[in-house]
């Protein structure tokens, strides 16, 4: 399988999509630094390097930038395997479907790590003199990085499965991008529900005078609903990425096991379906 990974890596570095994704990552890192510096200088905002570092996984608790970039690059790269008959030729020369599936996943993960490594390198090297060092402890930075890498690994598992199970590059690319967008909006909506206050104030006019009173918020989720909603957010790579960018540190410890379970499930189901797929 090492030869397959090497061959696919060689083909990848000659793909315009790979370099396009890298260029987007670099521009995104520079834009984050530029806008943050502008906000700090002109608006007097205090910005920590920690936040900029974790913006590599999602922008301001809303846009999972890494997921969108990987969705485009991985689905496009894997999707060309059918049109170029690379998969068929690999089977003819004796490669197993398991080798093909896992080698594609390995290359996808390498791409994700390269992009994230480049982003982190730019932000830390350029941002440290401007914004100062990290405010979070080394343990939290390490835990957050682990969560981010596992979220990227989960993205790669999903995009690799879609790309190899769909014979159409266009369908797989659109499906991956739409999937990330839908989960992004879903996580944003669910997070707003979690932020609802338990009590709200209402204004009532009586005899020409106003009176403020407190009443229960009908939109406030009960404990069982809150656990369910939080579980949905935690189970999605987009949800984990957005929690990282929002620096919601108190909830980070439960995320790595969830990601590992998700990766194993997606890999297992994807590999099982790929074993049965007809390749022409």
Automatic annotation (TrEMBL):
It comes from the Bacteria. The keyword Transmembrane helix applies. Keywords: Membrane, Transmembrane, Transmembrane helix. The chain crosses the membrane at residues 21-41, 61-79, 100-128, 134-158, 170-191, 252-274. It comes from Holdemania massiliensis. Signal peptide: none annotated. This is ABC transporter permease subunit.
């Amino acid at each position: 399988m090492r030869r397959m990974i090497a061959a696919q890596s060689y083909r990848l570095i000659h793909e315009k999509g790979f370099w396009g994704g890298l260029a987007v990552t670099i521009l995104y890192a520079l834009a984050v630094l530029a806008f943050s510096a502008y906000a700090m200088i002109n608006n007097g905002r205090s910005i920590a390097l920690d936040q900029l570092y974790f913006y590599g996984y999602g922008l301001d608790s809303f846009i999972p930038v890494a997921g969108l970039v990987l969705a485009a690059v991985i689905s496009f790269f894997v999707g060309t395997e059918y049109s170029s008959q690379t998969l068929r030729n690999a089977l003819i020369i004796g490669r197993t479907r398991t080798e093909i599936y896992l080698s594609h996943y390995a290359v996808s993960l390498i791409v994700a790590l390269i992009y994230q490594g480049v982003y982190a390198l730019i932000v830390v090297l350029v941002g440290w003199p401007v914004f100062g060092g990290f405010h979070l402890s080394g343990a939290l930075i390490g835990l957050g990085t682990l969560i981010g890498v596992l979220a990227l690994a989960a993205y790669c598992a999903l995009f690799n499965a879609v790309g190899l199970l769909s014979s159409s590059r266009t369908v797989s690319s659109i499906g991956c991008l739409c999937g990330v967008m839908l989960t992004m909006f879903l996580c944003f909506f669910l997070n707003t529900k979690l932020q609802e206050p338990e009590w709200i104030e209402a204004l009532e006019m009586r005899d020409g005078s106003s009176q403020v009173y407190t009443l229960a918020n009908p939109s406030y989720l009960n404990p069982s609903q809150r656990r369910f909603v939080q579980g949905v957010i935690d189970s999605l790579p987009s949800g984990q990425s957005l929690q990282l960018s929002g620096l919601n540190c108190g909830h980070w410890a439960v995320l790595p096991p969830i990601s590992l379970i998700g990766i194993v499930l997606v890999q297992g189901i994807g590999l099982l379906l790929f074993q049965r797929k007809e390749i022409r």
